[in-house]
Each structure stands twice: as structure tokens, then as C-alpha cells.
């Protein structure tokens, strides 16, 4: 059921912290160079206050540049990045993370040289458990030093998160970012994270655009006078997920933020729930 007063200013706070994560974010996967800077500037202009990048995306510098060009105070924009590789030594692994912080900050030090959330991008790190341990401990160090306000994981299973208990000082992770949409609901993993107080971030909340012609989705979109994309994003919000749509198109960026003047009813939610094709994990 939707939360009362759900709006573009809505946030969620991970258990045991006072850090607020905007419920709507902007993803930049596969948006490169000046196009990334322009897309992020547009997103910030129309009210997004969270941008999700990663080392793998090769656009951390552009995200930081867009933030500085926006004129918004650093404290008003929530920036996430991710690391999915380790270095040759624990210190080198830590330095890779520091490099991300510096790229986003534009090389500047001082109080604005931090990220709001730093994630382990994937569990498939060289060395398996040892690699995950080394990378998590690097993120814990960043957190302790104030260069990552929150730390978390992405694409982690229940088993991966449970394994962390053997080496983590900070547990549970503050966030698990996973693929979530009506066709990938992962109910067991979602329930586990919610029970542990782990915030769920939904990447690919639009199912990569591959299901926009689905009959059930089309019916609900017509019922509310909204686009299929808006229905999918609203579904994520009403499931208490943080949703991270991405687009380079200005009109789509604006459309994807206009989610707060309608609400899916119980029939809509039930119909979308029935579309799940995930294995239940």
C-alpha cells in the first residue's frame, strides 16, 4: 500500500542511521560523456535528488560535473557509486574506492569529497569470499573516514549477505541494489532484506523497456491516464523500493518524475504482482 503523502521529496532512512535516501533516483548506466552531464543536469533541474553511477559506467566525473554545474548544495544531492573489482593488495583496493570519490568531487578535497552511498557492485569478486571481504573492509574504512555516508551491496543474494557476518564490522549492509520490477520481484530476497532493515534499491525498474507493450501494463496505464513507465515506477514506489530509472531524453526524464499525482489501487497491484517470472529468490 502506498505511503501517505508520497512525493518527490520522500526519503527512506536505513536502520541505525540518520541518512535519508531519496525514494526516486536517476540512473546513468550507458550514458556517456557530455550526454551524461546533460542528462544529470536535466534530472536535477526537474527535481531528482539522487544520481546512481559506478566505476564500471565510466561517467563518475560527468556526474560530479553536473552536480557542480547545477548550483545545488552538495548536501542536497545523494550520490551513489559502486566498485566491482579489487586491487592487488588491500591498500590498492581501498585506493580504487578513493579514486571514485575524487572523480566525483572533481579532484577537490575538503568537506565535499564524499559519496552518500558506496556499493559493492557484484558478488563475483576475484577470490570469491576473500575478495568480497577485502572490498567490504575497504568500504568500511571509507565510511569510518567520512568519505561514504552509507555502504552497501548490489546483486547480493541472501547467502552472500549472511556470509558477510563472518567478516563485517558494519552489518547488515545499508542497501542492496537489485533488479526489481513486476517480472523480477525476487520475493524471498525482498522479504529477507526488509526483515533485516536493508533498503532495497530497484535497478532496471522499467524492465529495460522490454515489456512496455504488456497487455496488463497497458490496461493499467490507460486506466490512470499514465504511461506504462510511470505505472512501473509507481509500482516500485508503492512496494517501498527506491527506484532508479534512466534516460537520455529530456521528455522521458521529466515524465519519469511525474509519479505523485496518482496511486495504484489494490487491483492494479495484484495484477502486476501476478506477472512475476523470477525464481522466488
List keywords for this structure.
single chain, 10 helices, 281 residues, 8-stranded parallel β-sheet, alpha/beta, two-stranded antiparallel sheet
Query: What can be said about the biggest beta sheet?
Result: 8 strands, parallel
Radius of gyration: 18 Å
Task: Give the structural class.
Answer: alpha/beta
Overall shape: it is globular
Strand arrangement in the largest pleated sheet: 3-4-5-6-7-8-9-10
Q: How many DSSP helices?
A: 10
Helical content band: 25-40%
Please report the total strand number as a whole number: 10
Q: Kindly state the mean pLDDT as a whole number?
A: 95
Strand content: 5-15%
Extract low-pLDDT stretches. none
Give me the oligomer status: single chain
The succession of helices and strands, N to C, reads EEEHEHEHEHEHEHEHHEHH
Distance between termini?
22 Å
Give a description of the structure.
There is one protein chain. This protein starts with 10 loop residues before the first strand and ends in an 8-residue tail after the last helix. The protein is α/β, with parallel strands linked by helices and 281 residues long. Strands 3-4-5-6-7-8-9-10 form an eight-stranded parallel β-sheet. It is globular and about 55 Å long. It contains ten helices and ten strands. The mean pLDDT is 95. It has helices at residues 33-45, 60-70, 90-104, 129-144, 158-163, 187-196, 215-224, 228-238, 250-255, 266-273, and strands spanning 11-12, 21-22, 26-27, 50-52, 78-83, 115-120, 148-154, 175-179, 199-203, 242-243. Strand 6, helix 4 (129-144) and strand 7 form a beta-alpha-beta unit. Helix content is 38%, strand content 14%.
